[in-house]
Amino acid sequence: MNSVKYHFDDFTLDNYRRLIHIAKRNYAFRFYNDFDRDERFMLWRHDVDFSMTYAVRTAEIEHDEGVVATYFLNPHSEFYNLLDPQNKERVQRLIELGHHIALHFDSHYYNVEKAEDLEDSLVFEKHFLEHLFGQEITSFAFHNTTPFILSCDDWSYAGMINTYAKYFQQDVGYCSDSNGHWRHERLENVLSSAEDHNMQVLTHPAWWQENVGSPEQRLWNCIDSSKEETKTIYLDLVHSFGRELITD
Q1: Which end of the chain is more exposed for a tag (fewer CB within 10 A), N or C?
Q2: Is 5 helix (H, G, I), strand (E, B) or coil?
Q3: How far apart are CA 165 and CA 140, in angstroms?
Q4: CATH number of the domain encompassing residue 235
Q5: What mean pLDDT do residues 94-115 have?
Q6: Over the stretch 152-176, which tens digit does the pLDDT of each residue have?
Q7: Residues 217 and 65: beta-carbon distance below 8 Å
Q8: Which residues pair with 29 in a beta bridge?
Q9: What is the Cβ-side half-sphere exposure of residue 28, based on CA atoms within 13 angstroms?
Q10: Is 248 part of any domain?
């Protein structure tokens, strides 16, 4: 009965659009560097952990619905390469659609153990993204939070707003789909009740797909999609040079 317990049918692209409709009734969609604490604002955030392809799908739905989101990109992702020409085009597509890109910062990559050691690495990755995509990076989100990371709750570091700042942790409602299910409360319930004066919603684009499936199935779908894309890219490259791929 996991399909009922974990609301598998919530995580379709059609339902994603419906949830945005609900959110628009009660909240104004804003960016992290452009909101009024007194208004009923919505900070709709994506941690892009697995696939830039899936990120474009949610971005296009948001654009269709007239809302904006912030896409946090991880320079150290094991699952996509921001220097890949196809992925660079996809990021540019996010920007063209009116969204912001931001830094998804993996402090574990640098073995950061003290808040004062964050600055240099954050500055480096901020400049990397700005140089690569030509958009100012004004916010960042930690990747794979720990108690130490959550204690790094200053408003900003390295000139970027910290999505885990004390203000966001204490004064802003929060809902997340981490690991492909609702970690706290079901998003539809949170949006429909609109009990929180303002909200930060975290989604991961790879969990939102055309068809209903378990988190495991959705993950395999994402990996299979990436595999097929890699095959196509290689075969196109081979053929463009007039070569052949030898088979058995």
Answers
A1: C
A2: helix
A3: 10
A4: 3.20.20.370
A5: 95
A6: 999 999 999 999 999 999 999 999 9
A7: no
A8: 42
A9: 11
A10: no
Number of independent structural domains in the chain:
1
Residue 54 to residue 229: CA distance in whole angstroms: 13
The answer to whether 152 and 146 are in contact (CB under 8 A) is no
Residue 114, domain extent: 2-240
For residue 225, what are its two tokens? 């999609």
CA pair distance 12, 112, nearest whole angstrom: 37
Residue 71's nearest CA partner among 87, 85, 187, 153 is 87
Q: Would the pTM of this model clear 0.90, i.e. be above it?
A: yes
The token duo for 191 is 């949006």
Residue 73 located in a structural domain: yes
* Residue with the two structure tokens 């474009």: 56
Amino acid identity for residue 55 in this structure: A
